[in-house]
Amino acid sequence: MEPIFTLPYSEYSVATELAKHFKLKDGYSIYAPLSRQEKGVDLLLIKRIAKKTKTLSIQVKSSRTYQSQKPKRETTIRYLYYTWFNRFNIPKEADIFILYGLYPPEEGRTKKISKAWWNNILLIFDNQEMIKFINNVKTVKGKPDRMFGFGFNNKKRIVLTRGSQNRDEVEYTQYLLENRIDFIENKLK
């Protein structure tokens, strides 16, 4: 019998998204550790330059994505989708963190029509950015919050909806993968 290796869907999906932007023809490769016990490392993004290899270790954190209920008051602002992450410790082994959320972009559709039936958001942070972010995840009373989350209608605007002490919906759109390609490339130079 041949042993089976499995990868959580969130890590597979992140690897697939990274492969769209970091192509083999440009010297990039994506690897998954064989051991699920590698602290802080879910994936590796590698760039080969001449005879040198540069590596980024990636930690993937995933969230369910919830669709919002219609608000009771007209003045209440709601987003179509919300992610919900548990607060986590920051392993020093991870060079970058990817916060991953999967969502159905067409809520009422029941028949799958294409691969685009599901969409995702990937928010990219380096280790220092993640430390700063997690340290600022607070309750309204200023204590460390055990959860944080983002709200969005589409990829044009992603905001922190839980985790900001002032609940002032800080925007994180600039952290989307699509907006951080150069950031990641520079980390591999």
List keywords for this structure.
189 residues; alpha+beta
Structure description:
By secondary structure, this protein is of the alpha+beta class. The chain has one domain. The protein has three helices and ten strands; from the N terminus they run H-E-E-E-E-E-E-E-E-H-E-E-H. The strands form two sheets. Strands 1-2-3-7-8 form a five-stranded mixed β-sheet. Strands 4, 5, 6, 9 and 10 form a five-stranded antiparallel β-sheet that branches. The termini are far apart.
Give a summary of the structure in a few sentences.
This protein has 189 residues and is α+β, with helices and mostly antiparallel strands. 15% of the residues lie in helices and 31% in strands. The protein has a five-stranded mixed sheet with strand order 1-2-3-7-8.
Principal-axis shape: globular
Helices and strands, in order, run as: HEEEEEEEEHEEH
Coarse structural class: alpha+beta
Query: What's the average pLDDT?
Result: 89
Helix content: 10-25%
Cα separation of the termini: 43 Å
Biggest beta-sheet profile:
5 strands, mixed
How many discrete domains? 1
| Strand arrangement across the biggest beta sheet | 1-2-3-7-8
Fraction of residues in β-strands = 25-35%
Count the helices. How many?
3
Counted beta strands: 10
Which residues sit in consecutive blocks of at least 5 with pLDDT less than 50? Answer: none
Question: What is the radius of gyration computed over CA atoms, rounded to a whole number of angstroms?
Answer: 18 Å
